[in-house]
């Protein structure tokens, strides 16, 4: 117990918790308490649900050594199709709520199958499907905005709060808990991590890497679908722009949260905390009425900084390890070293 | 000796948090000599090499190059002082040709452009100096790993290296390739250069080295002594720090009357094997010996379904079996494959020890529910951690933090946890120290005594003769013969070598 506490303290999560606490306090003071007003709290958590979900969606693909450039496009199409079905076709909201989940999972499954069957790099595959899905989203909604008045019951859920905190935030946290438990306790979760860590070793241990890749993309797509559902519920309407700004935050959360881009690791708590940090930056931007471009600048800089810091930490650890295990393989090759 | 040493380390010390990796090490490399650096894993050999080549800065002591004290700020400084190193792993630019790889650190230029004819000419000169017959225009990827190693030595010569450090150069190359490497080393010696040679193979050290330094726990316990004055057993005792005595081969009676657990009958594979037949009975260790590239690992791959069998038959317990994947091999036939390359194929560096070992039993632990209980996982794993004496601080420790020998044990434990009846073990002791090696030998015997059928692949003839009940010899993807092992090194090695060179022309 003591050990796990001290491990937590040394981890990235501890740093992130500190940043969240300090950031919240500073922002609370700067906004003269606005942040902690009922409206302030509700807004803060309402717009935290989607970043958490898309961060987790990206984390799952990164864990198997893949990535998913189509997170926003999948979410956008899923939301658009559902909106059009409810508004134009008259699909009841209860059924309409299922549409984004199904669309998301199917799109993810498609990505996974394409990667598996063509053996083409996941970057190219998801870049291509992203473009296709963006086209589909435009075809569905064009330039109009489908008003949320078409799915009143759903929008009501989006506005519902418990103790002043939006229900959709609790839903996102619940999803995070499920993802964390899945990686910890299920056979599939373990296999995904093994495939991401060392595909060759996984294959030789009887794990199907193909299956891992397909499962990861499908789960990732499903989470994009959940994010789309949350957007449907919480936004005043659905148009072409839904999902358009998801890509960078989806990578920012897991990377800042401590997930190795090389695969084989997950950090659910870290991803949730990092999404919270990004949300704080966004709130600060609104508070000080800075141009939205500043948020992108700050997030981009933080992502770079995190990756650079992580790299420094890694090199240090490797040096230490290399020394402890003096006869182990070389970490520093002369070619690298002379450059 | 009055000649000035080309490289001298005096009282070199280096500490890392929690460990003193080098503790007052002394080393003298005389011109025109080959100096063996011996020691178990973790004794400090690699740290010493890194300290001598500017990767680590020593805390105390000095490095003297040809009479002048030097402090290397970085590897480039060591390079400039004429100290070159060829690491155990290959270190070439795969998109370059042989020639470009040789001259890449100082590309010959004229008028600001690379002078390609000079690249070829100077590279060819370096290769000629080593008497290596390679065309500088060949893409490096067409070379064998042993040939790449020679290219790296040529690269060191190109930058006027006077002292060459070779870190376990023969760990992953075959006997014939080693012979060629030693011809090159002899040339360097004749040329008046100094070579520091790290190896775990004492036979080749005795055959090719002049002087020796032995490291133990970061100290030089034998310092730059003429090798001829120290007997084999004495060196081993110095390395391990206590007299282990020679390993006694237990008298094992491999059962003869039982049906083979694993049998290949006239097997042809997509990897290129033709008409391969062999049989392993329960309780028996069948050695599969051959040079690197003879097709042994590929045969193991064919057995576990990573290559296809196109003709002939694979039989398990007498009935024909069609294995399409490692999972089938494991779950249907309880056949495990301990891979050759632990780091690349055997270990999940970012996962805990528990997960590394339990990976083969997850599906049976999760049967019905899809859930794996961490507690049951640890129960399975802790048994093998104790059994194999894996040195860890906790079951949650990441496998990447373990030493090479312990990683090897983790890789083996993974297969034992799956309780196999047939085990293919590929090069079990490459790059691990003597003590761990002995532990491995005893373990393999014990597994056979417990009734496992073991197919042992090894390039180490001494290991083969120690462990196997019978030795099958493979050359160019075919079995050239099989020998009953009488555990007599002289007669066995003659017999086996004869089978290898039965129809091979000298390399």
| Category by helix and strand content of chain A | mainly alpha
Give the CATH class of the largest domain in chain B. Answer: Alpha Beta
Give the C-alpha Rg of chain B. 24 Å
| pLDDT < 50 stretches of chain B | none
Task: Kindly report the name of the CATH homologous superfamily of the largest domain in chain B.
Answer: P-loop containing nucleotide triphosphate hydrolases
pLDDT < 50 runs, ≥5 residues of chain A:
323-339
* CATH fold title of the largest domain in chain A: ABC transporter involved in vitamin B12 uptake, BtuC
Rg of chain A computed from alpha carbons, rounded to a whole number of angstroms: 21 Å
The side-by-side strand order for the widest beta sheet of chain B comes to: 6-9-10-3-11-12
Order of helices and strands of chain A: HHHHHHHHEHEEHHHHEHHHH
Q: Counting H and I runs of at least 4 residues, what is the number of helices of chain A?
A: 17
Number of domains of chain A: 2
What fraction of the residues of chain A are assigned to beta strands by DSSP? under 5%
Question: What characteristic shape of chain B results from the CA principal axes?
Answer: globular
Write down how many β-strands of chain A occur, each being a DSSP E stretch of 2 or more residues: 4
Strand order across the biggest sheet of chain A?
Answer: 1-4
Strand fraction of chain B equals 15-25%
How does this model look, in words?
The complex is a heterodimer of chains A (339) and B (507). Chain A has 339 residues and is mostly helical. In chain A, the strands form two sheets. In chain A, strands 1-4 form a two-stranded antiparallel ribbon. Chain A is built from 17 helices and four strands. In chain A, a hairpin with a 2-residue loop joins strand 2 and strand 3. Chain A folds into two domains: 279 residues, ABC transporter involved in vitamin B12 uptake, BtuC; 47 residues. Chain B folds into two domains: 234 residues, 3-Layer(aba) Sandwich (Rossmann fold); 160 residues, Rossmann fold (3-Layer(aba) Sandwich), CATH 3.40.50. Chain B contains 18 helices and 22 strands. In chain B, a hairpin with a 2-residue loop joins strand 21 and strand 22. Chain B starts with 6 loop residues before the first strand and ends in a 7-residue tail after the last helix. At the A-B interface, helix 11, helix 12, helix 16 and helix 17 of A face helix 1, helix 2, helix 10, helix 11 and helix 13 of B.
């Amino acid at each position: 117990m003591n050990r796990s506490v001290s491990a937590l303290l040394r981890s990235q999560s501890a740093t992130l918790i500190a940043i969240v606490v300090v950031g919240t306090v500073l922002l609370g003071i700067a906004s003269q308490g606005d942040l902690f007003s009922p409206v302030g709290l509700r807004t803060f958590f309402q717009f935290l649900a989607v970043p958490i979900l898309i961060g987790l969606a990206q984390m799952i693909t990164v864990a198997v050594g893949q990535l998913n450039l189509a997170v926003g496009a999948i979410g956008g199409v899923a939301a658009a199709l559902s909106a059009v079905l409810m508004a134009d076709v008259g699909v009841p909201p209860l059924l309409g709520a299922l549409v984004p989940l199904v669309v998301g999972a199917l799109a993810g499954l498609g990505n996974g199958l394409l990667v598996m069957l063509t053996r083409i790099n996941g970057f190219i595959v998801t870049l291509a499907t992203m473009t296709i899905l963006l086209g589909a989203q435009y075809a569905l909604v064009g330039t109009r905005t489908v008003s949320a008045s078409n799915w009143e019951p759903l929008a009501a859920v989006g506005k519902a709060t418990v103790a002043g905190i939006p229900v959709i935030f609790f839903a996102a946290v619940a999803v995070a808990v499920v993802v964390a438990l899945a990686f910890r306790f299920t056979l599939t979760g373990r296999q995904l991590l093994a495939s991401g860590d060392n595909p060759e070793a996984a294959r030789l241990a009887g794990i199907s890497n193909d299956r891992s890749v397909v499962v990861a993309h499908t789960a990732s797509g499903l989470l994009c679908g959940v994010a789309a559902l949350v957007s449907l519920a919480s936004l005043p309407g659905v148009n072409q722009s839904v999902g358009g700004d998801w890509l960078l935050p989806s990578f920012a959360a897991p990377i800042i949260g401590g997930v190795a881009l090389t695969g084989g690791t997950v950090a659910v708590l870290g991803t949730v905390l990092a999404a919270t940090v990004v949300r704080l930056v966004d709130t600060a931007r609104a508070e000080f009425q800075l141009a939205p471009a500043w948020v992108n600048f700050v997030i981009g800089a933080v992502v770079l900084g995190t990756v650079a810091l992580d790299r420094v930490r890694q090199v240090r650890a490797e040096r230490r390890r290399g020394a402890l295990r003096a006869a182990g393989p070389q970490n520093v090759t002369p070619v690298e070293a002379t450059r | 000796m009055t000649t000035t040493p080309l490289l001298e380390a005096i009282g070199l010390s280096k500490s890392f948090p929690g460990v003193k990796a080098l503790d007052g090490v002394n080393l003298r490399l005389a011109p025109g000599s080959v100096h063996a650096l011996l020691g178990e894993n973790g004794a400090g050999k690699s740290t010493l090499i890194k300290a001598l080549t500017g990767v680590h800065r020593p805390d105390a002591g000095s490095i003297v190059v040809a009479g002048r004290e030097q402090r290397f700020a970085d590897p480039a400084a060591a390079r400039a002082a004429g100290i070159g190193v060829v690491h155990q792993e290959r270190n070439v630019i795969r998109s370059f040709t042989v020639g470009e790889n040789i001259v890449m650190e100082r590309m010959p230029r004229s008028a600001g452009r690379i002078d390609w004819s000079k690249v070829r000419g100077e590279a060819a000169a370096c290769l000629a100096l080593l008497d290596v017959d390679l065309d500088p225009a060949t893409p490096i990827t067409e070379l064998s790993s042993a040939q790449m190693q020679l290219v790296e030595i040529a690269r060191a010569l190109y930058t006027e290296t006077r002292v060459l450090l070779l870190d376990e150069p023969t760990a992953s190359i075959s006997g014939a390739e080693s012979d060629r490497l030693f011809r090159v080393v002899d040339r360097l010696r004749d040329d008046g250069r100094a070579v520091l040679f790290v190896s775990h193979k004492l036979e080749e050290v005795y055959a090719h080295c002049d002087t020796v330094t032995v490291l133990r726990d970061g100290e030089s316990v034998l310092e730059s002594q003429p090798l001829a004055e120290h007997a084999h057993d004495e060196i081993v005792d110095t390395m391990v720090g206590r007299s282990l005595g020679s390993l006694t081969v237990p008298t094992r009676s491999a059962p003869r009357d039982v049906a083979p657990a694993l049998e290949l009958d006239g097997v042809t594979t997509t990897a290129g094997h033709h008409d391969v037949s062999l049989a392993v009975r329960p309780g028996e260790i069948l050695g599969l010996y051959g040079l690197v590239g003879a097709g042994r690992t590929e045969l193991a791959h064919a057995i576990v379904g990573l290559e296809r069998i196109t003709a002939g038959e694979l039989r398990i317990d007498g009935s024909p079996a069609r294995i399409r994947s490692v999972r089938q091999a494991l779950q249907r036939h309880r056949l495990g494959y301990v891979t050759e390359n632990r780091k690349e194929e055997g270990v999940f560096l970012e996962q805990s020890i528990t997960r590394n070992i339990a990976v083969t039993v997850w599906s049976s632990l999760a049967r019905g529910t899809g859930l794996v209980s961490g507690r049951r996982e640890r129960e399975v794993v802790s048994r093998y951690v104790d059994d194999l004496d894996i040195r860890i601080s906790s079951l949650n420790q990441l496998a990447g933090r373990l030493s090479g020998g312990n990683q090897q044990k983790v890789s083996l434990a993974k297969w034992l946890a799956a309780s196999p009846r047939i085990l293919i073990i590929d090069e079990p002791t490459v790059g691990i120290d003597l003590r761990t090696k002995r532990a491995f030998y005893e373990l393999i015997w014990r597994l056979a005594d417990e009734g496992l059928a073991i197919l042992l692949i090894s390039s180490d003839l001494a290991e083969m003769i120690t462990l196997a009940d019978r030795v099958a010899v493979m050359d160019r993807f075919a079995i050239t013969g099989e020998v009953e092992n009488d555990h007599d090194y002289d007669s066995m090695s003659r017999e086996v070598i004869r089978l290898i060179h039965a129809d091979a022309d000298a390399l």
